[in-house]
Design goal:
alpha+beta; globular; single chain; 97 residues; 3 helices; 2 domains; three-stranded antiparallel sheet
């Protein structure tokens, strides 16, 4: 397992973006999986994953991997689904969340 930190703010960043943390804690690993951008916005994935409610009126979570998004959608229940964001969608969403 590998976690990642932002090169600018030092906070958790998405999988594959920023400095790699070898032997991260499970919390650090999930922090990287459960985001498409770091808190400062410097480290962002080219395209991430979102989980929406079935009416697409609410973002239930943002994730950097398909596996984590799919797992989260199952946890949210049958009224949610995982969706792959385009690079433009990921950039716009990361600016508002």
């Amino acid at each position: 397992m590998t976690g990642y930190t932002c090169k600018s703010c030092g906070g958790p960043s998405p999988i594959g973006v920023g400095y790699a943390i070898t032997n991260p804690t499970q919390e650090d690993q999930h922090a990287s999986e459960d985001r498409i951008a770091c808190d400062c916005g410097h480290s962002i994935t080219a395209a991430g994953w979102a989980v929406f409610n079935v009416a697409v009126t609410q973002i239930l979570g943002l994730y950097s991997t398909e596996d984590r998004a799919t797992e989260a959608a199952r946890e949210f229940g049958s009224c949610s689904f995982a969706y792959r964001l385009s690079a433009d969608e990921a950039a716009r969403i990361s600016q508002t969340h």
